[in-house]
C-alpha cells in the first residue's frame, strides 16, 4: 500500500491495474515496436524497485517472474493468504481472551491491542462484539 501513491503520482498505476497492458514486441512489419520499448523500460524500472525493497527470501520466491505485475501479483497472493491466517488467529485470540491474573487496565490494553491489529488488517471489530468478548473473559 505504501507503493501505491508512488505509482499513482507517476502515472504508473496502470502497470498494476492492467490498464497499461503488455505491448507487442514487434510491429506488423516485424520492426521493433517503440511503445513496447517504452513499456518495457518502465516495467523493468518498477520491477527493480520492488525487487530491491523485498527480502532475499522473497526474491527467491519470485525468481523467474519477468514483469512487475507478475511479481506484484505473486507477492500479493502470498501476503493475502498470510493476512487471512493472521486475521483468523487474531479474532480467535479476541474471542478467547480472559482477564486471568491481569488487572483491569492490562486486560483492556491487551484487548485493545488485538482490536487495533485487526483494524490495521482491514477487519475492524464492532463495539458490541468487543463488549461481548470482554465480558465473556471476566
Automatic annotation (TrEMBL):
For this protein, the parts annotated as crossing the membrane are: 45-68
Organism classification, top ranks? Eukaryota, Viridiplantae, Streptophyta, Embryophyta, Tracheophyta
Question: What keywords are assigned to this protein?
Answer: Membrane, Transmembrane, Transmembrane helix
Name of the molecule in the record: Retrovirus-related Pol polyprotein from transposon TNT 1-94
Task: Give the species this sequence originates from.
Answer: Juglans regia
Q: Which Pfam families match?
A: Retrotran_gag_2
Amino acid at each position: 500500500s505504501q507503493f501505491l501513491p508512488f505509482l499513482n503520482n507517476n502515472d504508473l498505476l496502470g502497470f498494476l491495474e492492467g490498464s497499461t497492458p503488455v505491448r507487442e514486441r514487434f510491429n506488423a512489419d516485424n520492426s521493433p515496436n517503440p511503445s513496447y520499448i517504452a513499456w518495457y523500460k518502465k516495467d523493468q524500472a518498477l520491477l527493480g524497485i520492488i525487487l530491491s525493497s523485498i527480502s532475499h527470501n522473497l526474491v527467491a520466491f519470485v525468481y523467474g517472474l519477468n514483469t512487475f505485475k507478475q511479481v506484484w501479483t505473486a507477492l500479493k497472493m502470498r501476503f493475502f493468504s498470510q493476512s487471512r491466517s493472521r486475521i483468523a488467529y487474531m479474532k480467535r485470540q479476541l474471542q478467547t481472551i480472559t482477564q486471568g491474573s491481569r488487572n483491569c487496565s492490562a486486560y483492556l490494553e491487551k484487548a485493545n491491542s488485538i482490536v487495533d491489529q485487526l483494524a490495521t488488517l482491514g477487519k475492524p471489530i464492532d463495539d458490541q462484539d468487543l463488549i461481548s468478548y470482554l465480558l465473556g473473559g471476566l
